[in-house]
Amino acid sequence: MSPSTVVRVQWILTWLLPSAHAEALLGDLLEERRLRLQLHVSSPASVARWHWMQLALSLPVLLWASFYRRSSFLTLGTAVVSYLAAGGVVFVLRAALLPMTTSTFARTVIDVLLCGVLAMTAAGYVAASIRPGAAPLLAVLVLVAMSMMMAFDLAGVPLWYEGSFLVIGSLAPIAGAALSRRWRKA
Question: What is the pLDDT of residues 11-65, one digit of tens each?
Fold first, then answer.
Protein backbone atom coordinates (compact mmCIF):
# COMPACT_ATOMS: atom_id res chain seq x y z
CA MET A 1 0.00 0.00 0.00
CA SER A 2 1.40 3.38 -0.95
CA PRO A 3 2.17 5.91 1.80
CA SER A 4 -0.36 8.39 0.37
CA THR A 5 -3.10 5.75 0.58
CA VAL A 6 -2.19 5.00 4.19
CA VAL A 7 -2.37 8.72 4.98
CA ARG A 8 -5.81 9.03 3.35
CA VAL A 9 -7.16 5.98 5.17
CA GLN A 10 -5.70 7.25 8.43
CA TRP A 11 -7.33 10.66 7.88
CA ILE A 12 -10.73 9.04 7.32
CA LEU A 13 -10.33 6.83 10.39
CA THR A 14 -9.17 9.78 12.50
CA TRP A 15 -12.26 11.70 11.46
CA LEU A 16 -14.43 8.78 12.57
CA LEU A 17 -12.50 7.77 15.69
CA PRO A 18 -10.30 9.35 18.32
CA SER A 19 -6.77 9.41 16.85
CA ALA A 20 -5.33 6.76 19.20
CA HIS A 21 -8.05 4.29 18.17
CA ALA A 22 -7.64 5.14 14.49
CA GLU A 23 -3.89 4.47 14.61
CA ALA A 24 -4.46 1.20 16.48
CA LEU A 25 -7.10 0.01 13.99
CA LEU A 26 -4.97 0.92 10.99
CA GLY A 27 -1.89 -0.65 12.61
CA ASP A 28 -3.76 -3.90 13.29
CA LEU A 29 -5.02 -4.06 9.71
CA LEU A 30 -1.57 -3.36 8.28
CA GLU A 31 0.01 -5.95 10.58
CA GLU A 32 -2.53 -8.60 9.57
CA ARG A 33 -1.96 -7.72 5.93
CA ARG A 34 1.80 -8.04 6.38
CA LEU A 35 1.38 -11.45 8.07
CA ARG A 36 -0.89 -12.72 5.31
CA LEU A 37 1.65 -11.64 2.70
CA GLN A 38 4.60 -13.22 4.60
CA LEU A 39 2.82 -16.54 5.17
CA HIS A 40 1.74 -16.67 1.51
CA VAL A 41 -1.80 -17.48 2.62
CA SER A 42 -3.06 -15.99 -0.60
CA SER A 43 -1.96 -13.83 -3.50
CA PRO A 44 -1.09 -10.15 -3.01
CA ALA A 45 -4.23 -9.17 -4.93
CA SER A 46 -6.49 -11.22 -2.64
CA VAL A 47 -4.70 -9.84 0.44
CA ALA A 48 -5.32 -6.31 -0.86
CA ARG A 49 -8.99 -7.18 -1.44
CA TRP A 50 -9.21 -8.61 2.09
CA HIS A 51 -7.65 -5.44 3.51
CA TRP A 52 -10.04 -3.09 1.70
CA MET A 53 -13.00 -5.33 2.53
CA GLN A 54 -12.11 -5.12 6.24
CA LEU A 55 -11.97 -1.33 6.01
CA ALA A 56 -15.27 -1.17 4.09
CA LEU A 57 -17.02 -3.45 6.57
CA SER A 58 -15.76 -1.35 9.46
CA LEU A 59 -17.07 1.96 8.07
CA PRO A 60 -20.80 1.55 8.91
CA VAL A 61 -20.02 0.67 12.53
CA LEU A 62 -17.48 3.50 12.77
CA LEU A 63 -19.94 6.00 11.26
CA TRP A 64 -22.65 4.95 13.71
CA ALA A 65 -20.26 5.27 16.66
CA SER A 66 -19.02 8.64 15.41
CA PHE A 67 -22.56 10.01 15.06
CA TYR A 68 -23.48 8.68 18.48
CA ARG A 69 -20.32 10.08 20.11
CA ARG A 70 -20.79 13.52 18.55
CA SER A 71 -24.53 13.65 19.37
CA SER A 72 -25.23 14.05 15.66
CA PHE A 73 -28.63 12.43 16.03
CA LEU A 74 -29.63 15.15 18.48
CA THR A 75 -28.49 17.78 15.97
CA LEU A 76 -30.39 16.05 13.16
CA GLY A 77 -33.49 15.77 15.35
CA THR A 78 -33.27 19.47 16.22
CA ALA A 79 -33.01 20.39 12.52
CA VAL A 80 -35.96 18.18 11.54
CA VAL A 81 -38.18 19.46 14.37
CA SER A 82 -37.23 23.05 13.47
CA TYR A 83 -38.12 22.36 9.82
CA LEU A 84 -41.51 20.95 10.80
CA ALA A 85 -42.15 23.85 13.19
CA ALA A 86 -41.30 26.29 10.39
CA GLY A 87 -43.89 24.52 8.24
CA GLY A 88 -46.47 25.12 10.98
CA VAL A 89 -45.50 28.79 11.21
CA VAL A 90 -45.80 29.13 7.42
CA PHE A 91 -49.27 27.61 7.56
CA VAL A 92 -50.40 30.08 10.26
CA LEU A 93 -48.84 33.09 8.49
CA ARG A 94 -50.43 32.12 5.17
CA ALA A 95 -53.81 31.75 6.80
CA ALA A 96 -53.46 35.18 8.39
CA LEU A 97 -51.86 37.18 5.55
CA LEU A 98 -53.04 35.77 2.23
CA PRO A 99 -56.74 36.69 2.58
CA MET A 100 -55.68 40.36 2.84
CA THR A 101 -54.76 40.64 -0.85
CA THR A 102 -56.27 39.62 -4.17
CA SER A 103 -53.25 40.18 -6.41
CA THR A 104 -51.57 36.94 -7.45
CA PHE A 105 -48.12 38.53 -7.50
CA ALA A 106 -48.59 40.07 -4.05
CA ARG A 107 -49.85 36.76 -2.70
CA THR A 108 -46.78 35.00 -4.08
CA VAL A 109 -44.40 37.59 -2.64
CA ILE A 110 -46.13 37.38 0.74
CA ASP A 111 -45.97 33.61 0.54
CA VAL A 112 -42.26 33.48 -0.34
CA LEU A 113 -40.79 36.46 1.47
CA LEU A 114 -42.95 36.92 4.50
CA CYS A 115 -44.10 33.42 5.26
CA GLY A 116 -41.35 31.13 4.01
CA VAL A 117 -38.24 33.20 4.63
CA LEU A 118 -39.45 34.57 7.95
CA ALA A 119 -40.34 31.09 9.19
CA MET A 120 -37.02 29.61 8.04
CA THR A 121 -35.05 32.45 9.63
CA ALA A 122 -36.90 31.94 12.90
CA ALA A 123 -36.35 28.18 12.66
CA GLY A 124 -32.63 28.73 12.08
CA TYR A 125 -32.52 31.05 15.10
CA VAL A 126 -34.23 28.51 17.36
CA ALA A 127 -32.25 25.56 15.99
CA ALA A 128 -28.94 27.37 16.54
CA SER A 129 -30.02 28.28 20.05
CA ILE A 130 -30.68 24.62 20.84
CA ARG A 131 -27.80 22.97 18.93
CA PRO A 132 -25.13 25.10 17.17
CA GLY A 133 -24.77 22.69 14.23
CA ALA A 134 -28.50 22.33 13.60
CA ALA A 135 -28.97 25.52 11.53
CA PRO A 136 -26.62 24.50 8.68
CA LEU A 137 -28.28 21.09 8.66
CA LEU A 138 -31.65 22.83 8.51
CA ALA A 139 -30.40 24.82 5.51
CA VAL A 140 -29.48 21.54 3.80
CA LEU A 141 -32.93 20.13 4.57
CA VAL A 142 -34.56 23.21 2.99
CA LEU A 143 -32.29 22.89 -0.07
CA VAL A 144 -33.12 19.20 -0.49
CA ALA A 145 -36.85 19.75 0.07
CA MET A 146 -37.01 22.60 -2.43
CA SER A 147 -34.97 20.65 -4.97
CA MET A 148 -37.38 17.75 -4.66
CA MET A 149 -40.36 20.09 -4.96
CA MET A 150 -38.87 21.59 -8.10
CA ALA A 151 -38.15 18.16 -9.57
CA PHE A 152 -41.65 16.82 -8.90
CA ASP A 153 -43.58 20.06 -9.43
CA LEU A 154 -47.13 19.16 -10.23
CA ALA A 155 -48.76 22.49 -9.31
CA GLY A 156 -47.07 24.58 -11.99
CA VAL A 157 -45.61 27.17 -9.63
CA PRO A 158 -43.55 29.86 -11.42
CA LEU A 159 -39.85 29.05 -11.71
CA TRP A 160 -38.81 32.39 -10.17
CA TYR A 161 -40.82 31.46 -7.05
CA GLU A 162 -39.14 28.09 -6.69
CA GLY A 163 -35.69 29.42 -7.53
CA SER A 164 -35.92 32.36 -5.15
CA PHE A 165 -37.04 30.16 -2.28
CA LEU A 166 -34.39 27.60 -3.17
CA VAL A 167 -31.69 30.23 -2.67
CA ILE A 168 -33.21 32.59 -0.09
CA GLY A 169 -34.96 29.83 1.84
CA SER A 170 -31.74 27.84 2.14
CA LEU A 171 -29.82 30.90 3.36
CA ALA A 172 -32.51 31.95 5.85
CA PRO A 173 -31.62 29.38 8.57
CA ILE A 174 -27.97 30.46 8.32
CA ALA A 175 -29.07 34.09 8.81
CA GLY A 176 -31.18 33.03 11.79
CA ALA A 177 -28.17 31.25 13.29
CA ALA A 178 -26.05 34.36 12.79
CA LEU A 179 -28.69 36.42 14.60
CA SER A 180 -28.74 33.88 17.40
CA ARG A 181 -24.96 34.07 17.83
CA ARG A 182 -24.96 37.84 17.62
CA TRP A 183 -27.68 38.27 20.25
CA ARG A 184 -26.06 35.74 22.59
CA LYS A 185 -22.80 37.70 22.47
CA ALA A 186 -24.55 41.00 23.26
Answer: 777 777 776 677 788 788 888 888 888 887 778 888 888 888 888 888 787 777 7
Is there a contact between 79 and 137 (Cβ–Cβ < 8 Å)?
yes
Identify the domain boundary among 69, 97, 119.
69
Q: How far apart are CA 23 and CA 87, in angstroms?
A: 45
Which among 131, 133, 135 has a CA at the least distance from the CA of 83? Answer: 135
Spell out a b/e string for 3-39, using b for 16 or more CB atoms within 10 Å of the CB, else e.
Answer: eeeeeebbeebeebbeeeebeebbeebeeebeebeee
**Which structural domain, as residue segments, surrounds residue 102?**
72-180
Q: Are residues 61 and 79 in the same domain?
A: no
Q: What is the DSSP letter of 41?
A: S
Q: What type of residue sits at position 1? A: M
Q: Give CA angle at 90 (84, 92), nearest 5°.
A: 110
| pLDDT score of 97 | 75
123 φ/ψ sector (left φ>0, alpha ψ -120 to 50, else beta)? alpha
